[in-house]
Write a structure and sequence with these properties.
three-stranded antiparallel beta sheet, MJ0042 family finger-like domain-containing protein, transmembrane helix, Znf/thioredoxin_put, transmembrane, DUF3426
Length: 276
């Protein structure tokens, strides 16, 4: 249908099913507001249409872009239905892309975590013999690395501590029999029952020891502080020259009555850093 602004005489082409009699229209040329009357004859259109409430675009005779005239109602908004459909499609596509990206990211993270947690099992499943070979090589390398560190003057005894109870003490000296300087000698101590089953084990750096008075009077935390003192380790267990001796002591607190034997093993030693 053709609608003419009674104020400036500009004509607009409106879809018949979108505008009904009595609807107020506003001319975008002059801003005049007037009620629609369907008794106007169809005439050529010389401008374009804008719609506020209806979800469609008015189609002028020569151009498909809506501008010029607007339909007045209680709700004032302008929607281009084709553009709205395209926006909806774009939003759906964007949401789908985001979902796919998030999903793939989560899957990759889960695979990474699973790989990290179950790497040994996966490796042993894919390469069933590699673990044994690697273990043998590591054991041989370790034996070669520590073979000339000897443990001497080893003795064990029980001490009654007033705060803790009974202590099982092992002490001795680690001797560097290499022909070069070594440091940070590390030892593993174990206590076992009469069947050879290990009850408890400890790993520690040599270099510290406690007096009998300290063993009898100190609390567990205080005693552990003495036996793991960094000062003692730096003083006695660094730059150990060939033939040098490093004291060590380890304490097991309130050991079970079935302790029958103990074991000591050197598990690591390092070369001092080279001077620049």
């Amino acid at each position: 249908m053709i609608v003419e602004c009674p104020e400036c005489k500009v004509k607009y082409n409106l879809p018949d099913d979108k505008v009904k009699e009595g609807v107020k229209l506003k001319c975008s040329k002059c801003g005049h507001i007037f009620p629609y009357k369907p008794d106007k004859p169809d005439e050529p259109v010389d401008d374009k249409l804008e719609l506020d409430e209806i979800d469609d675009t008015a189609i002028p005779e020569e151009e498909s872009v809506s501008s010029g005239l607007t339909v007045q109602s209680d709700k004032k908004y302008r929607v281009n239905i084709e553009e709205a459909e395209e926006v909806k499609k774009d939003k759906k596509i964007n949401k789908k892309k985001v979902f796919i990206i998030v999903f793939l990211t989560v899957v990759l993270i889960l695979i990474g975590i699973a790989g990290y947690l179950f790497y040994p099992q996966i490796k042993s499943w894919i390469f069933p013999t590699s673990g044994k070979v690697e273990s043998k090589l590591n054991k041989k390398q370790l034996e070669e690395k520590v073979k000339n560190i000897a443990l001497e003057n080893v003795k064990q005894y029980f001490v009654k501590n007033e705060k803790i109870g009974e202590l099982f003490v092992i002490e001795g000296e680690a001797v560097n029999n290499f022909n070069q300087t070594k440091e940070l000698i590390k030892i593993r101590a174990t206590i076992s029952d009469d069947k050879g089953n290990i009850i408890e084990k400890k790993e520690f750096l040599a270099g510290n020891s406690a007096s009998l008075f300290q063993l009898q009077m100190m609390s567990k935390d205080e005693l552990e502080g003495v036996l793991n003192s960094k000062i003692g380790i730096l003083t006695n267990n660094t730059f150990v020259k060939p033939g040098g001796r490093v004291p060590f002591m380890v304490v097991f607190y309130n050991p079970p009555e079935n302790v029958q034997e103990f074991g000591l093993e050197v598990i690591d030693v390092k070369n001092p850093p080279k001077k620049k």
